[in-house]
Amino acid sequence: MDTLINTNTKAHDEKRQGEAFAPFVADKNEYRKLFYIESYGCAMNFADSEVVASILQQHGYGATLNFESADLIFVNTCSIREKAEATVSKRLTEFRKLKKSNPGLLVGVLGCMAERLKEKFIEQERLVDLVVGPDAYRSLPGLIEEAETGQKAVNVLLSRDETYADIAPVRLNSNGVNAFVSIMRGCNNMCSFCVVPFTRGRERSRDADSIIKECTSLFEDGYKEVTLLGQNVDSYHWVAAQNFGQNEGYEKPVNFANLLEKVALISPLLRVRFSTSHPKDITDEVLFTIAKYDNICNYIHLPVQSGSSRILQLMNRTYTREWYIAKVNRIKEILPDAGLSTDMITGFCTETEEDHQQSLSLMEYCKYDLAYMYFYSQRPGTLAARRFEDDVPEDIKKRRLQEMVNLHRKNTLQSMQRDVGKTCKVLVEGFSKKTPDELQGRNDQNKVVVFPKKYFKKGEYVFIKITACTAGTLIGTAVDV
Ligand code: SAM
Ligand code: SF4
Is it the case that residue 28 has pLDDT exceeding 90? Predict the structure, then answer.
């Protein structure tokens, strides 16, 4: 048990780990080679795989869902916890065995593990032919050619300005209703437990125009919901190029509130979500923008990580327990119906039972609708690994995690029960998991809602009166409003 997740939100769906993509298998084009790509980690990694697919497709490579028929196998990797890396290493070892029966096969490692372990994959483990970091995907076609000549191809250079702004991602395994849109890359926060600043580099914001264009074209293609993605979306900051009359209409820098508004204005029928908000950066301006537009979802993912100010300081989160609570109070004041979710870590260096009790009491206060809970996994090279001892025994980390999960289950069930009797607007995403007679979608607060299909279709908005619930799902029937 490393991670516990309670409902199936798209933005962090652990059930998608290792998902393989083949967006154009039905495509009639003749491709010179076939690639297979598997993705691990956060939503940003899944979005990156869509950029990789686009670059490969432009260079004549077609996707396959069957790795045995592939000429190229890519694994887009995550370094956030030790277990994530172990899963990927095992998978790469399996793929390597395929080379015996298919000597021309190339195996490549992409993303955060490529960045963290660099040449180690090639020199020590001899597992792969290509090692490509998250800022080097444009060089993939050249690297593939290099690897085809028998050389090992590596590009793990991090960039200060790469955002892949001009690349239209190929939507992978999409339901045609929701899409992820990356608005920034990297992270400048130095949370002491976190490897992201080292694997994904400095924070940089993507051209606002290109974001609006991508969202507009998604809407024109029938998508009804976009999730704006970044490690820290509230610090989005983009300044237009002043020359050659480009980016007209952007006299002032664009902040996250401005960007949210611009995306919301594309159409009232396009829902807008975003993730992730660092508590120190989310502003009243953002909260008032959410309140102003019906199509910006009333849902905020606001990771706290711990309820103890002492631990928060060691984590370098730059806020205290009291400051975080004040932020949550402000959110509830401006957006009384807002859904709230969080990330939590148990067993960080020096964490005592008292610190742990403070985490539990904070969760009890905030009554999160959703929480991603992990036990601490020391990552080499991070500030915590250099400065502190990983001194909480694993059985204690896991016991604390279980206590946290139990408390959270009780709170989510109560949160669901409070919705029984209410009516909410649901965007239909497809059939329910149990039967084709029922549809499933999500409401404004990101809760999953299941209801009888009748004549409703995917991509429609339907008003549902909630009649019952489980800890993860609201159940209801369609009503006229
Ligand atoms: N940028 C986001 C933020 O600030 O909250 C989160 C990014 S990280 C990909 C997702 C979550 O993984 C973090 O919020 C944290 O709870 C968890 N995480 C990161 N490093 C971890 C570690 N070393 N051990 C356990 N969990 C970790
Ligand atoms: Fe990691 Fe902190 Fe950046 Fe999130 S904000 S990616 S936890 S360093």
Answer: no
Q: In a mutational test of the pocket of ligand 2, which residue from 112, 116, 187, 305 has the highest number of ligand atoms less than 8 Å from its CB?
A: 187
**DSSP β-bridge partners for residue 254:** 238
* Residue 120: per-residue pLDDT: 82
Cβ(231) to ligand 1 under 6 A? yes
Which residue's alpha carbon is nearest to atom 25 within ligand 1?
Answer: 376
What is the DSSP track for 231-273?
A: TTGGG-EE----GGGTTTT--S-EEHHHHHHHHHTT-TTSEEE
CA distance 280 to 291: 20
So what's the pLDDT on residue 9? 34
Contact predicate 476/451, CB 8 Å: yes
Cβ of residue 80 lying under 6 Å from some atom of ligand 1 = yes
Share of the chain above pLDDT 90, in %: 80
Confidence of residue 436 (pLDDT cuts 50, 70, 90): very high
Question: What is the rounded end-to-end Cα distance, in angstroms, of the chain?
Answer: 44
- Cα pseudo-dihedral 134, 137, 142, 146, rounded to 10: 30
Rounded distance, CA 433 to CA 58, Å? 35
Q: How far is the CA of 322 from the centre of ligand 2 (A)?
A: 20
Residue of 42, 116, 189, 376 with the most ligand 2 atoms within 8 Å of its CB, for mutation = 189
Answer whether residue 2 shows pLDDT above 80: no
350 to 94, 135, 310, 362: CA distances (angstroms): 38, 35, 10, 19
Tell me which residue has its CA closest to atom 1 in ligand 1.
231
If residue 365 lies in a helix (H) or strand (E), which one and from where to where? helix 353-366
Please count the CA atoms within 13 angstroms of the CA of 339 that sit on its side-chain side: 26
Nearest of 446, 363, 48, 445 to residue 231 by alpha carbon: 48
